[in-house]
Specification:
The chain has 14 helices and eleven strands. The chain is α+β, with helices and mostly antiparallel strands and 537 residues long.
Length: 537
């Protein structure tokens, strides 16, 4: 409520001053006031229509689009209040005299239309700014009803105070008034910067700099007076994030310095040029340092990934080799298998965009027994195979083994994200009384006759390690977003700011008629006219 009250008071006072001075001039010269009041009413109606239209448009949009519109409204509101604070800082001391002079000049043309237009445009300008600023503040406020009440009270107070000042019934130091309220509005606008950055993230426009910084819940508990002050008035959330802290500081510090700096100690024209040049050089250096020093993130993933069998027992390790074109698998016994891989697609896997590769391997099973008894066959198959008669086909049988393996591999940024192997072992029996060869599929994990070895089975990457790689890949994606923002976007903005400051410094130097930096910065110049660097603006 306090924030909207000050906004209504501050924004409404200038319009009220203009309307009051125009009304006084018209009344003094016997001119009717109806046209002026109609213009004021029309301006108020248009301003209200702007605010209502923006609110209705926002309410009709999807959630992400609403957040985007709130970001735009917040940014525009920050621009408005910044321009207003800076303009008032330069003109507040002589505002009433300037307004009276403008009104006298307009009335000197012999018609009151200029004065009516002056009142209409003043109210329209301030009303439009107020509508946008209040709409942005309502979104950041904890209670829209009290915020609206504060705005109405502020506008009413501005009308009363403006009428009293314009009629001479009250004497107010406008310079001090606007400087004091300017400090408060800068704090509110800094909160709007934070709110705009927060809604930009919620709209999907800004994903960088979302790291947690400090938790202010202990200082401003939700529902407390402190919480209402921080979130409702200053717009600072309890869980403020890194990019929001940077935005808040970068706006608040220079704006507060401009507003609170005593007018009698402000730098002169030439000093202002030097300050702009220094700030431009500083921004350029900061841009270069950020572009050079912001590191490129890397994926923190293990080189060798653990494998588990279907029963959950360890099945060795796997690693990508030859630049990710081969998969090297080492069994617990130390046997090594190298599989050539080929990419088949780029697909979503475990919530990440990954390369999907496949590979196959075939072996003849030379290390398996070449002869099997009927008991061995029953042990491998779990029962007497179909088509085998124990009386007519008693064995032993000649065994010819073959095994085939297929591999599915998913990689992300050159690291093994996930993998799975499916193995099929087939034995072909002949002889031992069999009229024709019989083919059996042997289940994985079955112990081979006369050996401690078992039939190799399928495996997958250990889920715990797959989760680690998934988290590392997600962290890498966030790191890249941050690196692009801090190492590219921010330096570009700083370079644009530096260029703008250089242009402003050159224009100011040209307006002062200073031919070169050397001539302008001679010590004799400042000594001969010490006031030139104090009171010139």
């Amino acid at each position: 409520m306090l924030a909207t009250f000050v906004i209504g008071l501050r924004e409404g006072l200038e319009a009220a001053l203009i309307v009051g001075i125009v009304a006084a001039f018209l009344r003094r010269n016997g001119r009717p006031l109806l046209a002026m009041w109609l213009g004021v009413a029309a301006a108020v109606g248009l301003s209200a229509a702007v605010g209502i239209t923006l609110a209705l448009v926002e309410a009709s949009l999807p959630q992400a689009a609403q957040e985007g519109l709130e970001t735009v409204i917040g940014a525009v509101a920050v621009v408005f209040v910044t321009g207003m604070v800076l303009w008032m800082g330069r003109h507040a001391r002589g505002l009433k005299r300037e307004l009276e002079a403008s009104a006298q000049q307009a009335l000197g043309t012999g018609t009151s239309r200029a004065l009516v237009g002056m009142a209409f445009l003043a109210v329209l300008k301030e009303g439009f700014e107020t509508a946008v600023f209040l709409l942005a503040t309502f979104k950041a406020a904890t209670n829209a009803a009290t915020a609206a009440a504060g705005a109405m009270l502020g506008i009413l107070a501005a009308v009363v105070l403006g009428a009293a000042i314009a009629s001479g019934g009250a004497r107010v130091n406008l310079s001090r008034f606007f400087r004091t309220t300017g400090v408060f509005l800068v704090l509110v606008a800094a909160g709007l910067v934070v709110s705009a950055l927060r809604t930009a993230h919620e709209a999907g426009w800004l994903d960088a700099g979302q790291q947690a910084t400090v938790n202010l819940a202990w200082l401003a508990p939700p529902g407390s007076v402190q919480g209402s002050l921080f979130t409702g008035v200053l717009g600072v959330p309890a869980d403020i994030r890194l990019v929001e802290v940077v935005g808040w500081v970068c706006y608040l510090v220079p704006m507060l310095a401009i507003v609170v700096w005593p007018p009698t100690h402000r730098p002169g024209a030439l000093a202002g040029v030097r300050i702009r040049q220094t700030l431009a050089a500083s921004a350029g250096v900061a841009a270069v340092l950020l572009a050079v020093l912001v590191p490129a993130p890397r994926l923190a993933a293990p080189v060798n990934t653990g494998l588990v069998a279907a029963a959950g027992s360890p099945a060795g390790t796997a690693a990508l080799t030859d630049g990710g074109s081969r998969l090297t698998v080492r069994s617990p016994a130390g046997a090594t298998t190298v599989v050539a891989l080929q990419q088949v697609a780029v697909a979503e896997h475990r919530g990440l965009t990954a390369r999907h590769l496949i590979g196959t391997e075939a072996a003849d099973g030379d290390r398996f027994p070449a002869s099997l008894t009927l008991a061995d066959v029953v042990a491998l198959n779990g029962r007497v195979p179909i088509g085998v008669d124990v009386q007519r086909n008693p064995g032993p049988y000649a065994a010819r083994w073959s095994q085939a393996s297929s591999f599915d591999v998913w990689t992300v940024d050159g690291a093994l994200l996930d993998a799975a192997a499916r193995r099929t072992v087939v034995v072909t029996l002949s002889g031992g009384g069999l009229p024709t060869p019989r083919t059996l599929s042997v289940a994985a994990g079955v112990r081979l006759p006369g050996s401690a070895a078992v039939v190799p089975g399928s495996w997958t990457v250990d889920p715990r390690q797959a989760d680690q790689v998934t988290q590392a890949a997600a962290a890498l994606d966030r790191g890249r977003t941050d690196a692009r923002f801090w190492g590219r976007a921010v330096p570009v903005v700083l370079l644009l700011v530096a260029a703008a400051l250089v242009v402003l410094a050159r224009r100011r130097r040209r307006a002062l008629g200073v031919p070169s930096v050397t001539a302008a910065e001679r010590p004799a110049t400042d000594v001969s006219n010490p006031r030139s660097n104090v009171h010139a603006h």
